[in-house]
Amino acid sequence: MTRPARPTGGDLLHCNQERTLLVDRDPAGELVVRKILLRGSITDAEHECELGRRVGHLGVVRYLDARTDAESGRPEVRMHFHPGTDLDALVATRGALPAVEACALLLPAARTLAAMHALRAADLPHGLCHGDVKPGNLLWTGATTLLLDFEHAGATHQRSCAGTLGFAAPEAEVGAPLHPSFDVYGLGAVLRWLLTGTASPRARLSVHDDELQLLVEACRARSPLERPTAAVVAEALAEIGERLRGDAREPARAALLAGELDACRAQLQTTPDPAVARTLAQRARLCARRPALAAAVHATGAGPIEPKALADRLALLGAWTLRFPRATGAVANLHRDKQRAGELLAASLPRIFEYVRAEDFDRARALLDDLRRLTRIAAALPGALRVPGAGVGRMPSLLQRAPLACLDQEGQRLEAAAAEHTDLLATLHAAEGALALDDAANAIDNIGNRYGGTSEAVARYRDRLHRLGFYVERIARGRGNIDRLYELLPGEDPAPLLHFVDECAGAVAASAASADQHGVGAIGLRSLHLALGNLRDEFLSVRERAAPGLACLDRALARVTDEAWGLLADAQQKLQAEPVPVRPLQLLLGRLDTFRSLEAFVDRPQHSRSALIDRIEWLRLRLEQVQATRDRLARGAEQALKKGHWTTGLFDMERAVTHLQADDDHDDRQAALLRQRLADAKKRKQEIDQAQRRQHELASRYAALQDDPHAATLERLQVLREQRDCLQFLAVHANKDRSDLYGRDLRDVELRIAQEQGAQAEAELDNAEAPADRLRIAAQALAQLEGFAGGGEAGVELPGRMQRLLDHWRRRHANELREVERRQAEAAARRRRRWLPAWVAIAFVVLAGTSLKLWPGAAQAAARDPLQAAATELAAPLRTPAATLADAIIAMRAVDGDAATALTAAETRVAAFLLATQAQTGEPARAGFARDAWLHAVHALRAAATPAHAPDFEAAVAAATLRLRTAGMAQ
Length: 971
Hints:
Elements: E1 11-15, E2 19-25, E3 31-37, H1 42-54, E4 63-68, E5 75-80, E6 85-86, H2 87-94, H3 99-118, E7 128-129, E8 138-140, E9 145-147, E10 154-155, H4 180-196, H5 210-219, H6 230-244, H7 250-257, H8 261-270, H9 274-289, H10 291-298, H11 307-323, H12 328-357, H13 361-379, H14 398-401, H15 403-433, H16 437-451, H17 456-476, H18 479-488, H19 495-510, H20 512-515, H21 525-538, H22 540-575, H23 582-597, H24 609-626, H25 635-642, H26 646-659, H27 665-707, H28 713-733, H29 736-767, H30 771-790, H31 800-863, H32 867-872, H33 876-891, H34 899-916, H35 924-944, H36 950-967
Antiparallel strand pairs: 1-2, 2-3, 3-5, 4-5, 6-8, 7-10, 8-9
């Protein structure tokens, strides 16, 4: 984690399921790091704090105290705030580091661990182990690398190994006791991480220096006995880093690891390196075979992206950086996309809830799987996976602390919701199967209460129930025509059909919801057949019960249709006879009309239904031609009826029928014809009277609904539309005077429909929040009103109410259009502003990285100055004792004899210098000069030590170094 350069207090540094790290200010205004333990006790906090304070002088963060957090009630450990960047974040922003820089960064940590391992006390008889060496626990401050997090630390042999996967030694799997070799394994794993940019076992060190590879392998040896000590690792890091500064092969290695293949080839021309050359050839072949990898490196990643696509891109970038861990573009894209992964996690969780609310569990599961995969890929990459959220600054949410655990929790909720949904649907389908419409409505209400009554799924269920009720009600209304049909078809068994129709009638009678919407009158058999077929196809729970009745009706309609074709064939023969038998043809046509009035005709394999109807009309025309002369007797009555004078026309038709009552066949036929026409006229008059009564009823109904404050717009619209149908019928079939009146009433009703539709759209617009939805509603309402305005008579001015309503919706539509355009412009501006801080941060990281590279070189140049020259550069109070110490140390270079004795003398000289200058304890140069003098003495005497006494000599050096540091010597 990169610590904020200027924290204001309350900044979140890190969080997981077990702990949360915050930066706060104490009462004195000093910055402190508060580590809140979400798991563990105050004893654990005190243990960590006590161990951290005991080694505070050995290059670790400064621990302050342990206490209980007043806000959360959890234990917390407080530490001094050290600005810097942990090595995990450093690799995340820069990629793999050069070997020289990696050695320099890890060297202070190795020395700190060596000092901890060598620490001896009554409760630490074998030293202290850190127990969790990993990149996130190593903080680079710009001057040194500090060790963090003593949560897993403990005395050697007195605590079990734990650590972090990928950086913990194999013995952690069996819970072996802590040992210094466990920390050494972590050092090797961190060094490998710094060099490769990943903890993946597929990463290779083949292009790096051989000694560096051997050091990593030795530290990561499977057997603890084969690993070196931390002191040896520190010495090796110092020597390897120093040697690699002037290694001519490093530029070729750097170019290869950065993906600059052409530059690498150029370097190999001057400085051949077989290992680099082999790896270069492999990487070149890889780039040629997998262009998608290279494309992912250069992708801008702008615009919205789905979790699956982002996971794929992170995987490609991870694969590329596995081969080219210092590729600047790939590392930048990887860091940017990992940040986007955290943002996408926070933004995508609400979508799972929306899918569940819409009962689209498959899409919810697919999105959850994509988020899990994205989280796993992102978490395996360098750097922390930061998820924005409302908890930032205090107690983060579970998604911020443990994204995978949060996603698993969401998965459990999803499966529980799916199981509950399955139970609710089973109840609904059972009610549908039993045709229990009220029970089905209650089941839908339960689903609405669970997932929201306004969800699309609940709307679909309500529409489905409406269709079920519609089909059942129509089937129930077919009972009368079924009876009439089977009266005409002797020998057919209607029991299966009648049984199901009676069930539907019982369901309609038992339903309170259908009682108010019960249809009036019978329906045709084709409509009944269509309703049965739709019920069977759309409702699987009713299929087995509806299928027998549908099959029974299929057989009956097929028989009726075949009989009709047979009757038409007989009529054809009769029409060819002389004289034409009108009466038998009329009876035949009457039977056909009966079948047709029942809507009993269907398509057959040999003939279509339309062809049958056309043939019946042809037969009717031929009969009309035969009877043309006979119609003159009733022409006056017919003229009156055509003019709409129904009373006069019916009276005249009755007289004509009475006049034709005679015994001869001619008069009988004429009378039958007139009686038929009289019946038709009465029927039409009855239809007109019914339409007029219905028109008055609807007008009264609409007036009542207008006065009812609880009446719904849809209910008023339904009444107006039915009134419009009545007026259209009356305008066509009434006489001329009344037809004009009905036309004006029709225009007024259409105007009210437009007003009601506008009111309905107004309500929908008020309830809509999304600008796009509001614009769509306004556009639809305006289109409907303009359609009404354009559908009027030519030259007729629009009513004032209609014109005002039209002008109102034009203004609403323009306002909503401007709002959508404004929000689109604001969104574009926000996207531009969002990228500016990212580019500033990248520039800062590049400049900081450049300064870090220059520091080790300057330090090394200073280390090469003679000791006497360093003494002369000190301040006046230190100059004389420093010069005396320098002369004594230089004189030891020519020592002969026991190196251990001389080492003791050197320690005495340095301790005397520190004692003589103890008044200058605030002077950093005093402690630094003592360290340089001691190192000069150690290097000089190490060469004089015999190989047999070398181990004892090194142990004496470590012990003396620890004593001098306690006396005030710099580390």
